[in-house]
Specification:
The chain is α+β, with helices and mostly antiparallel strands. It contains 6 helices and 10 strands. A 5-stranded antiparallel sheet has the order 6-5-4-7-10. It has a 3-stranded antiparallel sheet with strand order 3-8-9, with no helix packed on it. It has a two-stranded antiparallel sheet with strand order 1-2. The chain binds thymidine-5'-phosphate.
């Protein structure tokens, strides 16, 4: 329900997504796309793997949103790759990559405001995109869920974690936290 709400809201501001409709509490009907093999991680506040990798202090607010690219390959542990790797190995062409970066900034701006309005800091999140051919023309669209499973969400006042880190860090009350996000949205 959270992902359906967010994707529909993005659709209303002109951001195309794969969502067609929710079928029931567990399933959604989505457009079949050729998934681009890159996970786009967007960060507004440094935490998680970024702080571990680079020794940045946890909770550092970034001056500008940071976009990181990870290759979708479970065997290799989804390694971090650069723009140059993406272009060199033709995982995307330069037009696709630049278009997606722009789209990500629009998505991040929208989500930051949406969550801020319900007292939640959007710390970071992960997005995937896919290619779809419509009337012989290739388009790219957001093809992912957006939920507390794929975002870090902190309460504005208490900084309480309202996302999957409750599971990752064994903090308990995961269902209550997800319900709290749903209720506020
Ligand atoms: P990280 O700090 O572990 O790299 O995660 C950054 C953000 O991306 C965080 O909100 C969790 C999300 N994420 C996923 O949704 N799926 C993944 O496979 C990974 C690595 C991160």
């Amino acid at each position: 329900r959270i992902s359906e709400h967010i994707l529909s809201s993005l659709n209303q501001v002109g951001i195309e997504t794969h969502l067609i409709k929710r079928i029931n509490m567990r399933e959604q009907l989505v457009k079949l796309v050729e998934i681009i093999p890159i996970e786009f991680v967007v960060r507004n506040i440094a935490t998680g793997s970024l702080t571990k990798r680079l020794g940045i202090e946890d909770g550092t607010v970034l001056d500008y949103p940071l976009i990181e690219y990870c290759l979708k390959n479970d065997e290799l542990g989804d390694p971090l790759v650069s723009r140059e790797h993406i272009l060199a190995f033709k995982w995307m062409n330069v037009f696709e990559l630049d278009w997606i970066n722009e789209e990500i900034r629009r998505i991040n701006d929208f989500l930051l405001g949406m969550f801020r309005g319900v007292g939640i800091k959007l710390v970071d999140f992960k997005l995937e995109f896919g290619r779809l051919e419509i009337n012989g023309k290739k388009e790219i669209l957001l093809a992912d869920e957006i939920s507390p499973d794929t975002c870090r969400l902190w309460d504005v006042v208490s900084e309480k974690k309202l996302d999957k880190d409750r599971f990752r860090k064994d903090l308990g009350n995961i269902i209550q936290a997800y319900q709290e996000v749903a209720r506020r949205l």
